[in-house]
């Protein structure tokens, strides 16, 4: 298994790098030699000390993409937590074979943040194949951007604390952000340039 350990706006101490590599060795019995693991560590100074050290792991296993995220008081504690979760995912992946995806295609999807869902690939395009429910709370646009980056997602749904409307924040190809603000029975507004349309 190839393992890459990197920091997001931080330098990763050698002791933490070695710890991360040792933890990933636990998964090797579940993975093949062609598996890839990318571990990204970050520190969030504005968060409480109990969850200020975050770890995101992306694994490509037999053409499948497995992701894990954990936050804790230290990177080592976060690694312990995320590797436990990934171990369960890897076991499930082995026991439930999915449609085959070539490893290079899976890596390209992982780099683009696109996770394959075998049910979606086999089901008709017109049907809903998965429903996800989650708690939602009002927040400002800047906080939504920060949360989306923290999660490593390409879009984020939130209630805008100013307008009290459900909004969708998304990352554009150019690297900046877009915001979708639905208007029930309202007029279509093509966009904004530094201010909201009234």
Instruction: Summarize the helix and strand pattern as letters.
Output: EHEEEHHHEHEEE
Largest sheet: 4 strands, mixed
Based on CA atoms alone, the radius of gyration comes out at: 19 Å
Residue stretches low in confidence (pLDDT < 50, at least 5 long) are 115-125, 194-198
Number of strands: 8
Number of helices: 5
CATH architecture of the largest domain: 2-Layer Sandwich
- Overall CATH class of the largest domain: Alpha Beta
In CATH terms, what is the fold-level topology of the largest domain? Answer: Double Stranded RNA Binding Domain
Helix/strand layout:
Layout: E1 2-7, H1 14-25, E2 36-43, E3 53-61, E4 64-72, H2 75-95, H3 103-112, H4 118-122, E5 138-139, H5 141-151, E6 155-160, E7 166-171, E8 177-180
Parallel strand pairs: 1-2, 5-6
Antiparallel strand pairs: 2-3, 3-4, 6-7, 7-8
Helix pairs in contact: 1-2
Structure characterization notes:
- The protein is α/β, with parallel strands linked by helices.
- The chain folds into 2 domains: 2-112, Double Stranded RNA Binding Domain (2-Layer Sandwich), CATH 3.30.160; 128-198, SHC Adaptor Protein.
- The protein has 5 helices and 8 strands.
- The chain has helices at 14-25, 75-95, 103-112, 118-122, 141-151; strands spanning 2-7, 36-43, 53-61, 64-72, 138-139, 155-160, 166-171, 177-180.
- The strands form 2 sheets. It has a 4-stranded mixed beta sheet, with helices on both faces. Strands 5-6-7-8 form a 4-stranded mixed beta sheet.
- The longest helix is centred in the middle third of the chain and has 21 residues, at 75-95.
- The protein starts with a strand and ends in an 18-residue tail after the last strand.
- The model is unreliable at 115-125 and 194-198 (pLDDT under 50).
